[in-house]
Amino acid sequence: MRVEIEIAAPPEEVRAVLLDFPNYPEWHTNFIKSVSTIPPTKPAISLIEGDKICAGFTGMTIEPLVTSNTPTEFAWFGSLALDAFSGRHYFRFEESQITPASTTFVHGEDYTGWMTFMFGKGWPLHTSVRDMYMGFSRDLKARVEELQRAQT
């Protein structure tokens, strides 16, 4: 699964909003309900590979391991139901090749679980899962661009 969206802000500002976990409920109430560090007092910016986080989704919570926290990517690996659903969930912040001083935000997951074939193209869950990823990305775009307008 992979979706992209253009955001009218530099990559570091998009990353700052994405890593501002406590404020997710202000701008996104679907798909990813919450993310928090473990322990909760640890700043998200200081997460390193191997750190555990808590990620809440509709009807479930997982404790994935951070696999990347760099200026260009934040990612975790998580699994559910005896690894039936597992994968590396990622958020990438790329300098836009389309719009100057903007970001191409890439949101996706490389699935590895034995039941994740159901998310593939042509399977019934593909469209609904893609819509969830795109919805989160649109909400992030709206939040970042709202903050940009407030600064000017």
Automatic annotation (TrEMBL):
InterPro entries, per the entry: Polyketide_cyclase/dehydratase, START-like_dom_sf
Domain of life: Eukaryota
PANTHER family (alphabetical): CHROMOSOME 9, WHOLE GENOME SHOTGUN SEQUENCE (PTHR36166), SRPBCC DOMAIN-CONTAINING PROTEIN (PTHR36166:SF1)
Residue ranges that the Swiss-Prot or TrEMBL entry lists as coiled coil: none
Taxonomic source organism: Massariosphaeria phaeospora
Listed SUPFAM superfamilies: Bet v1-like
Protein's UniProt name: SRPBCC domain-containing protein
